[in-house]
Design a protein that fits this description.
Elements: E1 12-15, H1 23-30, E2 33-37, H2 40-43, H3 46-56, E3 61-65, H4 74-87, E4 91-96, H5 98-110, E5 122-123, E6 133-137, E7 149-152, E8 161-164, E9 172-175, H6 185-203, H7 214-217, H8 225-247, H9 252-272, H10 276-288, H11 292-307, H12 312-321, H13 329-346, H14 363-370, H15 374-377, H16 386-398
Parallel strand pairs: 1-9, 2-3, 2-4, 4-6, 5-8, 6-9
Antiparallel strand pairs: 7-8
Helix pairs in contact: 1-3, 4-5, 6-8, 6-9, 6-11, 8-9, 10-11, 10-14, 11-13, 11-16, 12-13, 14-16
Length: about 400
């Protein structure tokens, strides 16, 4: 029986092959002036031509901004706003990877309220509803189509920054796995591994006291019954289908299962939050200029090893969700860490931070900077201080996830 659960989600989630073709009718029900945020690659595809036609068929005025860049630099957001303000859209549509969806969220926010983008950095700083957003992912990883988070790069900040508010959750999510068929194997792998990290970190997040006001005061409330169900379903689907999607991009069954899992993992961490793997990725990404999902994926096995003493029961459930049989909780918990490591090796996720380009003399800075991501650090199931963060990054640098220095119980 669920004793406490939180789910914040889009008003509607449309899932399945061909659902992209409903875009025009869905958008037309919301407004008559559509701003589309996408990237140069997708803007040139036949899919974009078809989607644009579906909007035109509804008599909508459409402005396409195709300048979205990976990791979403603030300069790109400002460039989009320069053209969007005079267009005055009534609905913002994000089509693409996580950066395109986050672009749509931030632009919708900035078109709704006065202020600079940095005035909204952090949690619960969005004052109210924003322009309605439709999120249509073309990769399966971030889950941004259903989450209350937008992450961007600000050159005035050392690390990437986030805006977190339930008001940022898209009005409608349209998840069509056919849009992922052209996603290359490497991107499929790192995106799916990012989704696995969302599922595992939300499932193992700290469990907070159920005090009145918890869901109002915090965007991320920690482990709860509803997030757990979504996370476990995502873990099972990714274990089975992610290797298939990487091996054969035309496998629509696998593509569908992985997109479904990424969406469920987004719903899970959208209320429960994530932990140390995400906190440490921020400084790693800043130094190596590697994709967010790649850094999180490379770190996950080491963070799981560090958290293992505090996660026996939850890791045993993760193991069962991955299809591992057994009754001994300790053995199952160990097997979960090993199984995630083996899965990531199978799909080609880098094994070490050195593989991402991090240098040995940068490890201390990464460990100290990761602690600044307070909402992530405090959500981790094992208390994370400088010593703990240092042990994780040192192990991840050399590839020693079984290291005894990670396994001593507190």
């Amino acid at each position: 029986m669920i004793d406490f659960g939180v789910m914040r989600a889009s008003r509607a989630i449309l899932f399945g092959p061909g659902q992209r073709l409903s875009l025009g009718r869905i958008a037309g029900q919301i407004g008559k002036r559509a701003l589309v945020c996408t990237d140069t690659r997708f803007a040139s595809t036949n899919d974009m031509t078809v989607l644009r036609a579906s909007l035109d068929d509804q008599g909508m005025a459409v402005l396409v901004f195709d300048g979205t860049e990976a990791e979403l630099p603030l300069t790109g957001i400002l460039a989009c706003l320069d053209v969007a303000r005079s267009f005055k859209p009534s609905v913002v549509i994000g089509i693409g990877g996580g950066s395109c969806l986050d672009m749509a969220k931030v632009v919708a926010l900035m078109l709704s309220y006065d202020g600079t983008v940095d005035s909204f950095y952090g949690e619960n700083r969005v004052p109210g509803p924003v322009l309605p957003v439709i999120g249509m992912p073309t990769t399966s990883g971030t889950g941004s189509e259903v989450t209350p988070v937008a992450v961007l790069g600000d050159s005035n900040q050392t690390l990437k920054v986030g805006i977190s508010s339930p008001y940022l959750i898209p009005h409608t999510a349209i998840c069509d796995p056919e849009l992922t068929l052209s996603c290359p194997p490497g991107l499929t792998a790192l995106s799916g591994a990012d989704a696995m990290a969302h599922a595992i970190e939300s499932f193992t997040a700290v469990r907070r006291p159920r005090e009145p006001g918890l869901t109002v005061d915090r965007v991320f409330v920690g482990k709860n019954g509803l997030s757990d169900r979504n996370a476990l379903t995502a873990i099972t689907a990714l274990t089975t289908y992610l290797p298939r999607a990487v091996a054969d991009g035309a496998d629509l069954e696998a593509r569908s299962a992985v997109m479904y899992a990424a969406m469920l993992a987004g719903l899970a961490f959208g209320s429960a939050g994530t932990g140390a793997a995400h906190a440490i990725q921020y400084p790693v990404g800043a130094l190596t200029h590697t994709a967010h999902g790649l850094g999180v994926a490379a770190l996950l096995r080491y963070v799981m090893a560090f958290n293992r003493p505090n996660c026996t029961a939850t890791y045993a459930e993760v193991a069962r969700a991955m299809g591992i049989a057994g009754t001994d909780q300790e053995e199952l918990a160990d097997a979960a860490v090993a199984a995630v490591s083996a899965l990531f090796d199978d799909i080609g996720i880098p094994k070490t931070l050195a593989d991402l380009g991090l240098k040995a003399d940068q490890l201390a800075w990464v460990a100290s900077q990761s602690l600044k991501a307070t909402r992530l650090v405090t959500n981790n199931p094992r208390s994370l201080d400088l010593e703990g963060a240092t042990s994780i990054v040192n192990a991840a640098f050399v590839g020693d996830w079984r290291g005894a220095h990670l396994s001593a119980a507190e």
